[in-house]
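Following up on my earlier thread - several people asked me to post the actual chain instead of describing it. Fair enough. Here it is, all 243 residues.
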Amino acid sequence: MKYRHRLPWIVLLLALMAVVLVVRDFLGTAPERIDEVTSPAGTAGDPKAKVRRTPSEKEARSQPVEKTSTPAPPSRPQTPLYGIVVDSTDTPVAAASLELIENRVKGTHMSRPDQRGIWDTLRTRTMAQTHSGDDGRFAFDIADEGRFTLVARHPRLGDSRVFVQIPRPQPLRVVLRLGRRLPGRVIDRATDVGIPGATISGLVGVQDGKGGFDMVGVLKAVSGEDGSFDFPLPDIGRNHSLT
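Reply from S.P.:
Thanks for posting it. Predicted structure:
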């Protein structure tokens, strides 16, 4: 009977120990919240089934965002333009300079030299430049397509201009020969005295078969001390005009 007054304390101590064991056992077997949680539905028969936990909005903002680079647009394929430069005897010409020119003439017929704006609508752009080799051969790599003018120049043989349609699967043959020349003189009408240093320009074209002309090139010259000038005409065959 002497231990009866201690019985409540013993029961309380045992209850506390039981609570501690239960809490420790629960904490030791609880799943980690960071990586995985037990699947709530659809896996009732499989206690080991687990799914990924959806991160909270705060966690999503704190995670680094993977940067993706925009892919570069595909480059246009290069179209080869190749050929040979020869003289009038069919001998290859070395060290000839070649220039591929894009011509743009809009809204004006070259058969109307009196029409204002013919100079304003003329646009030229050099697309590529190269030189012929010892065997007279040359090659370009062009990404554009369309109609262009190929100008071949040589200090002894003059120049030649030919139309080129790109793409062109066949090799191009450019013939350099001394073409005709157009001499002239700039004078003061009142005194008939030559005017030196005057700039003379002209447009060279060929008939396009539709009643107009296709522009081949622009000729420029500067008058000498006595007002005289000399235009080397490109070898473009017949039916050409100079405006």
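Helices lie at 7-29, 57-62. That should answer part of your original question.
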